[in-house]
Amino acid sequence: MGDIEGAPVVAASAEPGPQLRWRGRVDREVVRQPHGEAVDRDPVDEVDRAVALALAARRRGEDLHLVPGRPQPRGEVVDLHLDATQPRQVAVGEHGDLHADSLSWARMVLMPHTLVAFHAHPDDEALLTAGTMARAAAEGHRVVLVLATDGAAGLAAATFGDPTTLGARRLGEAQRSADVLGVARVACLGYADSGLGPALDPDPAGQVRFVRTSVAEAAERLAAILREENASVLLTYDANGGYGHRDHVMIHHVGARAAMLARTPRVLQATIPRDTICRAIALAQKVYRFPPEFDPTSFERAFVPRSAVTHRISVRRHIPAKRAAMRAHASQASADGGADRTLAAFLRIPRPVYDLVFGREWYVDPARPPGSPVSRDIFEGL
């Protein structure tokens, strides 16, 4: 047994953590800490929550530093001498066997991130990023959905309301979509839907159409949420706004500015490789008759080339959630006069084909060096 210098513990929360007395001890003779046996015989006060303690790796002769969230190196057993007169003390032994094979490295070091998905209208999240959101939530990360508008200018059958009530209906659909995806929070920036028509309608009472607001003003609203959530990753759209919707292009610019203001570490632009879309449309035309106004050549200029994709995310395990999210937007699968809607057509695709078509989602990281390998994890490196 030899005395070495140690450093105070820093808790993994914002509150002051338990303080350890200097000159902790390390027993190099004991190979394994018995499960559930305290490493110090001094009594300890009650703690409100567990604090994970472990040793950082060090070379011979270096100081020993105790840090939160790191697994205990094998062959190193800590004898922490706690000061029982101080409140909120904790012994490592309370956390069980730090060397046990059953403790996975991933479980010990995983620090949950916050993913913020920024979309123009309710239902956009279901079409472009639902699988990524569901996967992140299933992996224990916090997921937040931010909508720029309520989508009141969207098309829908008359049974779903007129433009004065459709927005509230669609926000309700977005909440149901978020619920099935595991989203923790839904926020709306409060702008009015800019619509799809060639002419931009006047602003409704008390609102400004999203495309008419300044990028700086909208970015400040989004940045406030990014700061509040301490976001690790922000999802936006590619520079084309996907297929070119004016509100989607605005999402691209506002998201980029907001991430810079909030110092969000990573921005990923949701997209689809355009060659994949063109091949899918060519195949679909053999069995499905598109509406007369549908122009398949427009997709030759939409989204991005495959070479621009930096992240390809497998979401096949989360297809049921993605499909349920689409189904939640019932108004956007409706139309008067028997007209067909894209969302309704997607939901009619047989499950095996649906899994193939929607089992991956693609992103562009504008900060990623050219030639980097395509990543399969949006949190990689964070």
Secondary structure: elements and pairs:
Elements: E1 2-3, E2 6-7, E3 25-27, E4 53-55, E5 64-68, E6 77-79, H1 105-109, E7 114-119, H2 124-128, H3 130-138, E8 142-149, H4 163-181, E9 185-191, H5 215-229, E10 233-237, H6 246-262, E11 266-271, H7 274-284, E12 311-314, H8 319-328, H9 342-348, H10 351-358, E13 360-364
Parallel strand pairs: 2-5, 7-8, 7-10, 8-9, 10-11
Antiparallel strand pairs: 1-3, 3-6, 4-5, 11-13, 12-13
Q: Order of helices and strands, N to C? A: EEEEEEHEHHEHEHEHEHEHHHE
Strand order of the largest sheet: 9-8-7-10-11-13-12
Termini, distance in Å? Answer: 38 Å
Q: Count the helices. How many?
A: 10
Number of discrete domains:
2
Looking at the overall shape, the CATH architecture of the largest domain is 3-Layer(aba) Sandwich
